[in-house]
Design goal:
single chain, alpha/beta, Rossmann fold, 39 helices, globular, glycosyltransferase, SPP-like_dom, sucrose-phosphate synthase activity, transferase, Glyco_trans_1
Amino acid sequence: MAGNDWINSYLEAILDVGTPLDDKKSSLLLRERGRFSPTRYFVEEVITGFDETDLYRSWIKASSTRSPQERNTRLENMCWRIWNLARKKKQIEGEEAQRSAKRRLERERGRRDATADMSEDLSEGEKGDTISDISSHGDGLRSRMPRISSVDVLETWFSQHKERKLYIVLISIHGLIRGENMELGRDSDTGGQVKYVVELATALGTMPGVYRVDLLTRQISSSEVDWSYGEPTEMLTLGRPETSMQEIGESGGAYIVRIPFGPRDKYISKELLWPYIQEFVDGALTHITNMSKVLGEQIGGGQPVWPVAIHGHYADAGDSAALLSGALNVPMLFTGHSLGRDKLEQLVKQGRQSREEINATYKITRRIEAEELCLDASEIVITSTRQEIAEQWGLYDGFDVILERTLRVRMKRIVSCYGRYMPRMVVIPPGMEFNNIVEHDGDIEGEPEGNEEASATPDPPIWFEIMRFFTNPRKPMILALARPDPKKNITTLVKAFGECRPLRELANLTLIMGNRENIDEMSSANAAYLTTILKLIDKYDLYGQVAYPKHHKQSDVPEIYRLAAKTKGVFINPAFIEPFGLTLIEASANGLPIVATKNGGPVDIHRVLDNGLLVDPHEQKGIADALLKLVADKQLWMKCRQNGLKNIHLFSWPEHCKTYLARIASCKPRQPQWQSRDDNSETTESGSPGDSLRDIQDISLNLKLSLDGEKGEESGNVDGGLDSAETMKDTTDKLTNTVLAVSKEMLRSPKSIEKADQNSISTKFPALRRRRRILVIALDCFDSLEGSSTLLKVIREIFEAARLNHGLASIGFILSTALTMFETYRLLQSGGLSATDFDAFICNSGSELYYSSLNTDEVGSPEFPFLFDLDYSSHIDYRWGGEGLRKTLVRWATSIVDKDDNEAQMVIEDEQHSSTHCFAFQVKKPSMVPSIKDLRKLLRIRGLRCHVLYSHGGSMLHVLPVLASRSQALRYLYLRWGMELSNMVVIVGETGNTDYNGLLGGVPKTLILKGVGCSVPSHLGNRGYTSTDVVSLEHSENVTIDEGHGSKEIRSALVTLGVLKG
């Protein structure tokens, strides 16, 4: 019962604190909100330190000694509550174990299915190398990573790449980012990632072959932060120091570019940025487009210079990079920094919060889906360590180590992967700048007696700030540098130091835990943890032996490392899990031996540097023993120091950038399709005539299939007056002729194409170029004849409202639907509307794009006056699974049956409404099919990348390329024809298809018509997070019209939005 004495003591302490336990709003669960409460500390100690049986015994004891006294009654009640809390923690752990087991079975089943589809067996010798061919360590790594400090290596690299002029875009949107005086540690969003992206941009800007680097982040004009975060542009570097200004160019170098999005006058945390992602994407797209044109004038011979890659950092920037990559058709890279699934697992294991509470606090489900999208869209995923690949990315639906290796080997053998893709995982350790590191004589041998006063250089001020804490500042310093966060495990370090008397007698302990003014003003979690550390210092009476300064500048950090090295100290990183451990690199570069956690990146760092010891972060005695061993054994200390300094340049920024650029060069070049077709400098594989002809034949076949299928339509569809077989055959033949006419143009020589683009293509759609305002009608109300009538009625009202405007010619119209082009045409005909009233049609949920035209020579038939955009078709083809995806979907569809209806199939392939980039399925009973979240998961596990959505009130399933959507089609039109996104108004109903939320955000204005639209059953659109995590209408320009609206109300709304004049 000794354990129960401790429990009873903690419970008595809780009562002494006097926390109002009866407050219904309070909770014994530890949360990251509110101010620090000692009650939480004691409850945490009880729950994590004692068995459920002991808690139950304490409750029995309290209840048996009941008395009229209020204190005993409260004690009994509190025992019961804490006991139940412990039981809840155990229940959560059990549920999580079941989830993990289910996940393993799903992954194994998906892997088996994928392997079964890929029929060719691989021999033992063909199974490929390790996960990443640059992720080995030890001698192998050193042999492949020569010291980049070598002048010969740098000069060779420069001579090979100096003629290249690359444009690279990096994205990191949360936290406070600037080039000088970074406020690292100010909050949880402004940490190592900020330092990493700024230094990466700066280093890339100095590399040969790189002309410009843009680091895109959020512009913050708020009184809460410094004015510098509101500056639109900040220069980081002008390029290589030895490069002349003429070679650099007017726009060369590295820059921080701040894009305004979200609340303009408020600094908000990364968890609150999710609803504004699309607004950032539109702003970034405008910047990149304008910059590409500027660079084209300077270095591109008049042709736009598009980014060679877009690199997203963290989930929010990765989500943005995926959309930008899809809009621009350029390669995407991604670095996670920390991953949502790994964080979720750690939080669930702690048992302090349920999954629902975790999601509410961290928006973790939204973050995980963004990371899954990054796996779908990325060419390369850059990691710091091998552990991150196997143990963290391995948790995701979209990545499987075994399947990735299989696919990679098949690609090397030029064997079909049946539409399956995996991103390339590449280990590139973060770099560091070593130019400012200077080795002082006193660092190793110590300064001679009496030489201090004669020193010409005064000690840095930060030294005094640290040494004033110590009784004996000359003792070796054990240095830890981390923010006060439980996962950094500083409490275990303090306990290890406090309970090891030889270590206390031999060394001092310095804790650099960010910057603070007042503990009460810190975030609740950081304040609580810091208070716990201070209590431990008091408990072990470590005054005079532990330093914990309140302030330090980023420029002080190298001096802190140097002070520790001067005292022959040791640097320690005791975190429970460390994704990489950049501080270990920094410490090693300053001559400090290291003690580090054995979980995560430090393992790889230790293999390369061999300059310290690895420890189990949970073993307090092991930490103390490792520190004592390094401090006490001077020979071992000197050996570790020399090893670290000898190999540290393997982690330099030039080395990092060299590998980084080599990886970018390995990606297949991609750029906007019309730019690729116009580019005469090189003939890429994707631009060859053979590929173009193959695409045209595929499109022709699918167009024929779609039109022929209309013959078998059910009577419930809209009757457009083209029912006769003769008319259908005529239209089909003429549409085929249209496609073949376009094919002839694409098969011309490059000069002919260029001439056609100038004299023909640019004049085919003059209306789109001269439209000053664009109205996009994206109403989803065609689930029935009644819904179609509503759509036609609203279109007429919109036209009538626009015709009242004197400048009608300056207003263009785009119809965006889930219908096929043929269905759309029949719908317009049935309502007496002309197709030429619209400038463009986004069909099949964003998988096809058409233009109306009166020129019969262009379209081939006056009865079907549309031009199909082949460029857009090629634009969205990235990672499209094609026939392999279709077969998997058909097999899945046959498994959805109604057991109560003679095993009737509930999902049926709809070949009539399918096309090259849209597989359509009829859903007979929506209640029996999975949500888009579950269906995407099923496909991702099998290596298939796509965008799934339900339309027609849930009665139709569309499967599109991963980056194809109606909102992405609008971005394509902006890029292709120069239509300003800010001059667009997207008109939507109150509800719509499962892609409805994607139409609301971003720069375009929104007009919402209440009472219009057919909703999809809520369970089908379930993504695991709410619509408020996707889009925010609070700060965007939007107007809502109540039910019963007409043309006058629509006109009034358009006047309010600035489209029409009052």
